Model the fold of this input.
Amino acid sequence: MLFKWYADWMIRWETALTTRDTNRIVRPLEWGFDWLAGFSPLAAEWAAKAESSYSAQEATRAMAEVNDEIVARANDFYGYTMPADFRLEERFPELYPTNVRPETLEQDRWYKEQATGGNLPKAQFLRFTSPVRTKYAENDVVNARWYPEAPHAVPNRAKQAIIVMPQWNADAFSHNALCDIFNKFGIGALRLSKPYHDIRRPAELERSDYAVSSNVGRTIMAARQAVVDVRSCIDWLASQGYEQFGVLGTSLGSCYAFLAAAFDPRIQVCAFNHASTWFGDVVWTGQSTRHVRESFESKGITQDEVRSIFAGISPMSVMDRFAAERTRRTLVIHATWDLTFLRQFSLDVLRNLRDRRVQLVSRVLPCGHYTTGETPYKYLDGWYMGQFVWSAYRRMRLDNA
Done:
């Protein structure tokens, strides 16, 4: 009886949190073949056609074939040329809110006021031009807040760093506290702004909609860019003398982190905070993507079809590649009442990783997706991530001593 009461209460709370923002937009379905034309000859062929000349079902089959190309030529799709313009910039941090709730707008105003008055310390940001270019200049300049660790007590200790990617529509302060914690462990941290997020967000957007939307090609390209940006950040860290690397991703950041690790064996520590095997399943079933699903449903597209048109950016498509790195240590956190990354999808991730003998730690939160960010669950989540990262990096130091 108590369990049922708690479950009902948690689902009501989770639903309330996912419906409080009033600026989600149902956008028309766009196939976005033009976004992938430079990679796929088939996409280029379809990009040359007028959308009125083909049906949604024909386009669905073609986009599924483009995703088959991505999977077959994944090294090319996620490959890149290392950036040549790495630089550190110093500026006042800004919030870049993605909702219009009064308390958020007041918080944004306060930070700006503190910066204007000189009461807010400046921060360092790694900037460089993304090797993957899009149609938005501001999005193509990568931004990662840099948290350098204090000098080590043991000067010759291997330098360790982690790349942190928050959830979809995160503001620019989300997960910064984790980076401070990692610094206390002697680990440098780059808090990466995902494509179309905070300072990279095009001016016409209130939210980071272009990262996940009913423009299929653009969504796929955002994932490609995120993966390449992570790998480029590791290039910069290596140039600064760092030797051991990890990634931590939450929600959408978890998907990007999984893909990046699959293609970069330098990443030896992985923390996935909410995870799913198939990108399209989350789009279809998640409360936070109801407005995206609506666009697909309006054209008669099914869940199985949505899964197929996002297969190339799904963790399941690179599961074997990820698991092939036998020394990698992996954490997966999932929530029992997650209405965005449904529990069944997280369990599928765990099952697939265990079947492949991945060095795995699993942790469960007694809450949902959005409630993970609420008291007291955010502290439990932070403890799970912090303890795992500390332990994994400590083990790496011992193994390499």
Q: What stands out?
A: The mean pLDDT is 96. The first helix runs from residue 2 to 18. The CA atoms of residues 16 and 370 lie 10 Å apart.
